[in-house]
Backbone:
């Protein structure tokens, strides 16, 4: 899909479904590179799960890293985005190369069933927009689907949550406070590293987590 058409579709979905889109523009190639850093350093067969791929800004990088024995699953709740991704696997050479190994699932991640865990899970879900209980559930689901030694990578926009908490009141402020507690707990127990990505709209942190068998 042409660059401006892809951004237009993303912005349309942002206006209509902000709670599940969460950004005004697709991720930059610099953010995509950071999100796929652990995958890019892996050799051999691999199972990859992308959650909330949107228009495919990170997917575009993932497909270039997959070998012939890889398995790639994409879980996307938004039908417009899922349709767009399907067209890419049918028409764009980099996607076509791994089309037979790739499968798009149109459902919430909580409803996605799999027969084997994943070596890498890459999530574009806008966690800051969700209720705290849902974020807690999403983390639990993702860690259950991650293989021992696997890596979960996700991003959030720099300083957005503390800034929103400063200007919020009542239930919204409490929701953001609970999100802080949930996310800090996972980072303190599981974080491998954090990447800073300034060339993105807005700038973002990429968090890479690995499950601790004693805690998951």
Residues:
């Amino acid at each position: 899909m042409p660059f401006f058409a892809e951004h237009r579709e993303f912005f349309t979905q942002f206006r209509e479904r902000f709670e599940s889109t969460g950004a005004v523009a697709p991720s930059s190639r610099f953010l995509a590179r950071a999100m796929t850093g652990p995958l890019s350093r892996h050799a051999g067969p691999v199972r990859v799960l992308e959650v909330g791929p949107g228009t495919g800004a990170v997917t575009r990088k993932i497909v270039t890293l997959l070998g012939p024995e890889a398995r790639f699953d994409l879980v996307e709740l938004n039908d417009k985005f899922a349709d767009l991704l399907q067209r890419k696997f049918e028409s764009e050479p980099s996607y076509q190369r791994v089309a037979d190994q790739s499968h798009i699932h149109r459902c919430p991640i909580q409803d996605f069933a799999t027969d084997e865990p994943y070596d890498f899970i890459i999530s574009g879900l806008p966690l800051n927009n969700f209720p705290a209980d849902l974020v807690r559930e999403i983390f639990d689901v993702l860690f259950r689907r991650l293989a021992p030694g696997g890596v979960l990578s996700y991003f959030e926009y720099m300083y957005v949550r503390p800034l929103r908490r400063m200007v919020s009141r009542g239930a919204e402020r409490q929701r953001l406070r609970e999100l802080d507690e949930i996310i800090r707990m996972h980072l303190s127990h599981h974080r491998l590293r954090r990447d800073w990505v300034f060339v993105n709209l807005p700038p973002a942190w990429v968090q890479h987590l690995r499950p601790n068998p004693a805690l998951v």
Notes: The chain has ten helices and seven strands.
